[in-house]
């Protein structure tokens, strides 16, 4: 599985925890399940925690068009949390791919800055609150 996701109702955020191997078909299957849960609304924001993953350029090139084709109205605010230069570059590449859809995507190296950009209070919307703390949900 490429990622697992869950909704945190207290903050109206969908958290995605990405893990290797990241493969298009597996990720699309999880995205379909995520969207079918219907836990999100117009104000819901997304956080993709890609720390510790090794995504390749080919995945990024195919992911954005696949999501746009399958979920054309799924336009939201997405913060991508990364932990290295390669993932920073790939996250920025994904953000550029989303620009044509008016989907706001940014890349961050800290959870606090990602949460703040999403418009949430980083003093209340912590790693533990989001399920990303010491007892984090592993993919």
Plain-language structure description:
The protein is of the alpha/beta class. The chain is 39% helix and 19% strand. Helix 1 links the parallel strand 2 and strand 3 (45-49). The longest helix has 15 residues, at 85-99.
SSE topology sketch:
Blueprint: E1 3-8, E2 13-18, H1 24-37, E3 45-49, H2 57-70, E4 77-81, H3 85-99, E5 104-108, H4 111-117, H5 127-130
Parallel strand pairs: 2-3, 3-4, 4-5
Antiparallel strand pairs: 1-2
Helix pairs in contact: 2-3
Q: In a nutshell, what does this entry contain?
A:
The protein has 139 residues and is an alpha/beta fold.
Low-confidence stretches: 135-139
- Secondary structure class reads alpha/beta
Annotation, overall tally of beta strands? 5
Which sequence of strands runs across the widest sheet?
A: 1-2-3-4-5
Shape: globular
Order of SSEs: EEHEHEHEHH
Distance between the termini: 7 Å
Average pLDDT confidence is 89
Characterize the largest beta sheet: strand count, sense, and whether it forms a barrel: 5 strands, mixed
Instruction: Work out the radius of gyration.
Output: 14 Å
Helix content: 25-40%
Number of helices: 5
Beta content comes to: 15-25%
């Amino acid at each position: 599985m490429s990622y697992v996701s869950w909704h945190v109702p207290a903050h109206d955020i969908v958290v995605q925890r990405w893990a290797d191997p990241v493969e298009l078909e597996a990720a699309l299957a999880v995205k379909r399940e995520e969207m079918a849960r219907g836990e999100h609304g117009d104000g819901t924001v997304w956080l993709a925690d890609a720390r510790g993953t090794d995504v390749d350029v080919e995945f990024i090139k195919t992911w954005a068009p696949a999501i746009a084709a399958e979920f054309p109205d799924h336009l939201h605010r997405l913060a991508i949390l990364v932990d290295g230069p390669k993932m920073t570059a790939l996250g920025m590449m994904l953000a550029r791919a989303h620009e044509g859809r008016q989907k706001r995507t940014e890349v961050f190296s800290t959870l606090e800055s990602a949460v703040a950009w999403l418009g949430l209070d980083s003093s209340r919307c912590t790693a533990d609150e989001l399920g990303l703390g010491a007892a984090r949900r592993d993919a």
